[in-house]
Structures are given as structure tokens and as C-alpha cells.
Amino acid sequence: MAVLTRDNAPPDTGGGKGKGSGRGRGKGRTPGAPRPDRGPARLTLPTLLVLVAFVTVTPFAVMVLVAFAPHSGKTLPGAFDVTKATPANFDDVLGSSDILRWALNSTVYSVVSVVLILLFASMAGYAFAKKRFPGREIMFWSFLATLMVPFQATLIPYYILISEMNGVDTYWGLIVPTLANSQAVFLMRQFIMQLPDELFEAAKIDGASEWRIYTTIVIPLIRPIMATLGVFVFLWHWNDFLWPLVIAQSGDMHTLTVGLATLDGENVTINQVMAGATITVVPCLLVFGLLQRYLTDSIATTGLKS
User: Fold this and answer.
1) Positive or negative CA dihedral for 62, 64, 65, 66?
2) Which sequence spans correspond to the domains of the chain?
3) 105 touches 280 (CB < 8 A)
4) pLDDT truncated to tens, each residue of the chain (306 aa)?
5) Which residues of 250-266 are buried (b: 16+ CB within 10 A; e: fewer)?
6) How crowded is the C-beta side of 106, counted as CA atoms within 13 Å?
7) What's CA 257's distance to the chain center, in Å?
8) 3-class secondary structure for 8-71?
């Protein structure tokens, strides 16, 4: 009888699935065995996401349903009867209020603020990220420290200053105090710091001026963060209530948020108020939908750099 020893044993071809195989090594599970049950852990995250989506979407769904529902004298008059939907509430709001004027004011306030904030923040972010000058760090951190001061604390000084400059009930009185956005400058600086210095050094060797470097190198490379900031700045200004309420006192200068608040105090139905609120939400959804690709690119770029 032949005895297998280490010298005459057949070579291992790797066909087995045992300990010597690369696949399944250290798994502690035989081939074909059922995987361990992870049902509760697997259902936790989807369930949480469904709950968050439900809590987020429900107020918007109720708002739209009430806006299209006919008025019957109740708190929520037939809001959930889809078969009786009617656009009459939108006609009433558009015909009996200055909502179009309010929408124009909100558009001017939001769009002009976005353009100017992105312009100033990108310039300041480029200077703080790539330029060397005395006191740069002190200036940056001092400017960033203003994030710790809530806007409500500076509301009265801002109003007194704008009032002394005859800026009450004017577009520039609405816009100018919001242009010094330290959060936008911080995000711009952090993004521009990731850009390689060789690009700017090569441009300087070729004789490019600072303005040309800014317009031809910085601006094209920071488009993702500019789109992201643009969305957030637009939404903040479009939904802003406190500052327009204080500075835009006449009815002709009201924004949509302030106008809807005054509309709620008049002899109107809740359906008309919800119709006005629906009109207010539509531009936000359009802006987010149009710039969603840039938001995704910004998140992806940040993930790759980190």
C-alpha cells in the first residue's frame, strides 16, 4: 500500500473551495450555505428614508391639494377630493392681489443678490486662497467670525444705516446689506485652495493679468461651487421674510413672502393663501431642477478631492 507523503502527494490545482482556495478563505461558510439573516438591519435605512420623505413631501402635497380645492367654508374644504380640483383659487389670487408685483420684487431681490454675492465672494475667495499680502489670515478669520453673529442682532443697526441713507422702500436697500456673505467667501476660498498653484504660475509667466487669471482660469474651474452657492443664496433670498418686512414697508415693494403674510390677514380663504404659496414655491423648484446637474458635479468633485 502506497503511503502519501509530502514528497509524493499530488499538487494542489486550486479547484477546491476549501481552506487553500482564495475564494471563501476565512469566510467560515461552506459553499451553497444560506447567508445570515440581516432583515432588520437591511430594512432600517429604507424605512427611515421613507419616513423622512413622507414628512418632507406631505406639507407640499397638502398645500397643492388645498390650492386646487373648491372653497366650502371649512378649514380644509374638500382638500383631498381630487375630482373637484379647480384653478379658480389661482385666478382669484392673481386678480385680487398684487402678487405679480410681489413676484417681480422677489425676482429682483434674489437674482441681483445672487449675481453680486457670487461675484464678490469669488473675488474674495481667490484673494484669500492664492494671494499673499500682510494681514491676510487676520482679515479672513475676522471676516469669518461674523458667522457667529446672528442677523437678527444686526437688524436694528442695518435699518438705521439704510434709513439714514434713504434706502427704505428701495431695491438697493434690500440688496446691499446682504452682499457681505462670509459663508460664501469661506466656501469659495476652500474650493479655490484645492486648485494647483502651477496653473496660476504658468499664467503669470505668460504675462496674464490678475483680471485675466480670474476670468479665464478661476471662474471656469469654480463653476460647480458657484452653482451650488447660487442655488442656496437664491433660496435664502427668495424665502427671506424678516429683512424685506423691515425695509420694504410699502405695498409696492413687498416680496412674495411678505405679501402672502399680508394676504393671510385679509378677507381671503385658505385656498387662496395656499394658491399663493404654491406660486411662491414654483420658482424654487425650477431653479433647483435646472441646476441639479451642477450640484451633483460639485458634490462629486468635493468627494474626489477629499
Assistant:
1) positive
2) 111-305
3) no
4) 455 555 555 555 554 444 444 444 444 555 555 555 555 666 688 888 889 989 988 888 888 888 888 875 555 555 466 677 788 888 888 887 788 899 999 999 999 999 999 999 999 999 999 998 898 999 999 988 988 888 888 899 999 999 999 999 999 999 999 998 999 999 999 999 999 999 999 999 999 899 999 999 999 999 889 988 999 999 999 999 999 999 988 888 999 999 888 876 667 788 888 888 898 898 888 888 887 777 766 666 554 454
5) eeebbbbbbbbeebeee
6) 27
7) 19
8) CCCCCCCCCCCCCCCCCCCCCCCCCCCCCCCHHHHHHHHHHHHHHHHHHHHHHHHHHHHHHCCC
State the cell numbers at 297.
458635479
First to last CA, the chain: 66
Angle (CA) 197-144-240 rounded to 5° is: 115
CATH architecture for the domain at 111-305? Orthogonal Bundle (1.10)
Question: Do you know the residue count of the chain?
Answer: 306
Contacts 24+ apart (CB under 8 A), 161-164: 162/247
Residue 230 CB contacts under 8 Å (≥ 6 apart), including other chains: 114, 118, 291
Helix, strand, coil abundance in the chain, percent, nearest 5: 70, 0, 30
Please name the residues in contact with 228: beta carbons below 8 A apart, sequence gap of 6 or more.
294, 295, 298
Nearest-angstrom CA–CA distance, 273 and 260: 7
Helix residue ranges, H only, 69-193: 88-96, 99-130, 136-144, 155-164, 171-175, 182-193
C-alpha cell at 261: 403674510
Amino acid at 167: G
At residue 49, φ and ψ (nearest 5 deg) are -65, -40
